[in-house]
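Handoff note, outgoing to incoming analyst
You'll be picking up this chain. Sequence as last confirmed:
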Amino acid sequence: MANSTWSVGLCGFGDSCGTCCLTCLLPCVTYGRIAEAVDDGHSSCGSNCCVYALLMPLQVQCLLSCTSRTKLRAKFGLAPEPCGDCCVHYWCEPCALCQEHAELKNRGYHPSKGFIAGPTAAPTPPAMRK
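Most recent structure output, in case you need it:
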């Protein structure tokens, strides 16, 4: 059940002109960043970007990107606005990608920096603890 609203409208790209320009030139990169963040780092930006780029000549990349939008909406309880996920990506792919990127940023994620998990330092061996 959707109980949260989008922080940025479909055509309100947030405050990132850079993301907007990148998305218009290389939408596969923006998609890769979004997918990595939505998947909590279980998939890489590079692999997502490559799959998206391979689908671009066939003009079916929206089928891939709409699945990430669905995951993002489920993660944050967002409504399917202004219409269904696949419809939004089919008709407004760059706008949808920019909106999703901005939504992640506004919710504390940093998709441009990659997925950032907790500390990655190795645990201290038991013999060294005091």
